[in-house]
Recover the amino acids of this structure.
């Protein structure tokens, strides 16, 4: 795929970089160390993990080691060999990106007509009893298909996760923090997130959520006026605390959407790398403005977003702020519309 919002197509010397990917033996050696140190769950992702010719070998070896394995995939290259492997060693879950409801949308966004192939593979996974979830990354190129993909997920009885925030391409070689490349404006991202919630909830359910969010904003504002936080909070998720990411070339990071801190596992070994990442993660602080912000129950800001948007963990990401403001505006419109005139 050549998805328009994906940073990887901006990388130079792609084929040379591919040659530096870790081998089967290297991945399994790392996995053995990870298991000894207590790792229970693995997520295999890419790019597209199943593009590797040795995917089945890597996956089956990891599975027989006792890990619970989830996989991220675009669903287009699930071969009969892979299906047979999944029958023998079922993954915990496969997260399949469904980018559009038609071949035209796939061509527009991904540069390839793959919709029929992906939906066919979804049904094949269902037939052999594999648990999976569909994920839609909503962009200006496929937002018109949101309702159709929602209906597809209901027909196929799958869970569906929608995302309207797209990370800027910080991971490309020439880093461009915060540059809006092939993604919504912040307001459009906020509006489409609300559109998804209105699709997901009943009319009464969405109204109740709107009341809850506006009430939370008002309560946080009252508290913040009395208690002005002097420092930003630490990492809010499990990144670097009980979870880690290992890149294609053997670097450990707290999260795959960060570019630092990182430690080279091949040089330091798994246990040392993990201890260093765990320690460095404790030093990360989010913007202090976020700790006092009345919109923090609406905003989905995280350390990775701050770094991707601004190049720093402790600097407020304006794009994310504007997205939350737009969502709050829509909640407030719903609340005001419900009040007697």
């Amino acid at each position: 795929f050549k998805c328009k919002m994906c940073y990887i197509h901006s990388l130079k010397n792609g084929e040379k970089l591919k040659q530096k990917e870790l081998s089967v033996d290297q991945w399994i050696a790392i996995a053995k160390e990870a298991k000894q140190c207590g790792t229970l769950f693995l997520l295999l992702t890419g790019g597209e993990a199943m593009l590797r010719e040795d995917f089945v070998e890597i996956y089956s070896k990891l599975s027989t080691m006792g890990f619970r394995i989830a996989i991220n995939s675009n669903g287009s290259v699930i071969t009969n060999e892979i299906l047979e492997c999944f029958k023998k060693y079922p993954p915990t879950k496969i997260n399949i990106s469904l980018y559009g409801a038609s071949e035209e949308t796939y061509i527009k966004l991904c540069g390839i007509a793959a919709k029929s192939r992906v939906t066919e593979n979804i049904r094949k996974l269902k037939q052999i009893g594999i648990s999976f979830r569909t994920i839609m990354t909503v962009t200006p190129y496929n937002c018109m298909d949101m309702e159709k993909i929602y209906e597809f997920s209901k027909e196929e009885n799958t869970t569906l996760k929608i995302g309207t925030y797209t990370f800027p391409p910080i991971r490309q070689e020439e880093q461009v923090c915060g540059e809006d490349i092939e993604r919504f404006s912040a307001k459009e991202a906020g509006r489409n997130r609300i559109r998804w919630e209105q699709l997901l909830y009943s009319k009464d359910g969405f109204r109740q959520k709107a009341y809850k969010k506006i009430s939370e904003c008002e309560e946080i504002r009252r508290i913040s006026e009395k208690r002005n936080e002097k420092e930003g909070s630490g990492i809010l998720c499990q990144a670097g605390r009980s979870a880690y990411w290992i890149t294609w070339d053997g670097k450990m990071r707290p999260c795959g959407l960060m570019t630092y801190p990182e430690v080279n596992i091949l040089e330091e070994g798994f246990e040392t790398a993990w201890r260093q990442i765990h320690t460095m993660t404790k030093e990360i602080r989010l913007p202090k403005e976020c700790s006092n912000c009345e919109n923090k129950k609406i905003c989905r800001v995280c350390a990775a977003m701050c770094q991707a948007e601004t190049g720093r963990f402790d600097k407020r990401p304006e794009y994310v702020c504007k997205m939350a403001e737009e969502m709050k505006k829509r909640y407030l419109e719903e609340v005001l519309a419900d009040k007697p005139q």
